[in-house]
Specification:
With about 60 residues, the chain is an alpha+beta fold. It has a single domain, classed as Alpha-Beta Plaits. Helix content is about 25%, strand content about 25%. The chain contains 2 helices and 5 strands. The strands form 2 sheets. The protein has a 3-stranded antiparallel sheet, with helices on one face. Strands 2-3 form a two-stranded antiparallel ribbon. The longest helix has 10 residues. The structure holds iron/sulfur cluster. Iron/sulfur cluster binds next to helix 1.
Length: about 60
């Protein structure tokens, strides 16, 4: 399992992560980030890609 944590104090809702892994990260109708905290191991590459592109470096992947 991949464990995902987003520091919501850092997140500025830019949404870049959503393009990398749309099944994990999404902006809601209010423009706030929503994400799933656990994903299948097969999704790791895209999730790590999302962490890499986050301009605020708000995403932690374990
Ligand atoms: S890319 Fe980073 S700052 Fe932007 S919505 Fe995702 S976690 Fe938040």
């Amino acid at each position: 399992m991949v464990t995902i944590t987003v520091d919501m104090d850092k997140c500025q809702s830019y949404g870049q992560c959503c393009f990398e892994a749309a099944d994990v990260f999404a902006l809601n109708d209010d423009g706030q980030l929503e994400y799933v905290a656990e994903a299948d191991e097969s999704r790791r590459a895209d999730i790590e890609g999302a962490a890499d592109v986050c301009p605020m470096q708000a995403i932690t992947v374990e």
